[in-house]
Every structure is written in structure tokens, then in C-alpha cells.
Give the backbone structure.
Amino acid sequence: MNYNNLSRKHYQQYKTLVDSNITEVFFCDFIDNILNSDHKIIILEDDEENIIGSGTILIEKKLTYGGCNMGHIENILIDEKYRGNGYGEKIVNKLLEMCKEKKCYRVDLNCKSELEHFYQKNGFDTKNICMNMYFKEYFN
Ligand SMILES: CC(C)(COP(=O)(O)OP(=O)(O)OC[C@H]1O[C@@H](n2cnc3c(N)ncnc32)[C@H](O)[C@@H]1OP(=O)(O)O)[C@@H](O)C(=O)NCCC(=O)NCCS
């Protein structure tokens, strides 16, 4: 098992994992021009390089709190056939390690209420509420 940064070669597998209609051109442009040291998508692969799951980390540099960093975890997703084997926990812990390396003072994520237990089990506390506003005209 290995952690890797998402790269161009993962197009087909990642598209299937996230059930997305993105084109290869869009995907490669995203890899080349959007992802960077503060915006990473990591994947966990088995020994045959099959993607087990994935997670996104964003590091926000703040002007508040003395100018420290804050982490945002997004899109934790485990391939259905691998669920319930601790891989989600592994990916969350890997992203938390990355937040610590970046000296984040805090890490936030939003999730469905049914996943409260999963994230609490992985060290998160339920605090505050999450507010959303959708601009449906920009949703693909
Ligand atoms: C949520 C998800 C990432 C968990 O990954 P996983 O590898 O299956 O989870 P783990 O094996 O590490 O952890 C299992 C624990 O989480 C809980 N859990 C996992 N998925 C759950 C779900 N959908 N609903 C409720 N609890 C869930 C299990 O009850 C279990 O708890 P227990 O050990 O106390 O019984 C995975 O189910 C998934 O990809 N779901 C679909 C995408 C999604 O909802 N992502 C989260 C976005 S915030």
C-alpha cells in the first residue's frame, strides 16, 4: 500500500472513483495548474496500483491569529469495495499529518451528519454549524 499525489496517469481510475464526467484535458490541466504544495489530492493505492481511496487537503494562509495556517479536508472517498477496512481512517490520518507538517493550528471539514461518528472516531470534535449557499447556475 502506498500514498501518492494524484497525477496525470490516474485520470481513468480517479474519474471512476469520483464518478465524474471530467475530460482528460480538464483533469491534466487541473493536475498541472491547480494542484500545488497547499492544495493536494492524495491517493492510497494497493500494491497493484489500484486506487483504494482519496482525499484532498487545502492549506489556507491566514492573516488572523498571527498569520498562521489552517487546514481544510475535502472529498474523502474510499472505493466501495474497500470500505469498512480502516482505509478512510488511514487517509484522514495522512491528511492530518500533512496539516501538522504545515503547522496548521486547526483543521476543518464539513460532512453529512451520518459521518459524525466516523470523524469523531478520527479525533474531530463537532463544533459550530456549517452554512451553505448554492449557485445552481454554476453547477456542472
Ligand atoms: C466515509 C468513508 C470515507 C469511510 O471510509 P471507510 O474506509 O469505509 O471507513 P473506516 O473503515 O476507516 O471506518 C469505519 C468506521 O466509520 C463508520 N462509517 C464509515 N462510513 C460510514 C457511513 N457512510 N455512515 C456511517 N458510518 C460510517 C463505520 O461505522 C465505522 O465505525 P466503527 O468502526 O465504530 O464501526 C467511506 O465510507 C466513503 O467513501 N463513503 C462515501 C463518500 C463519503 O461520504 N465521503 C465523506 C465525505 S465528508
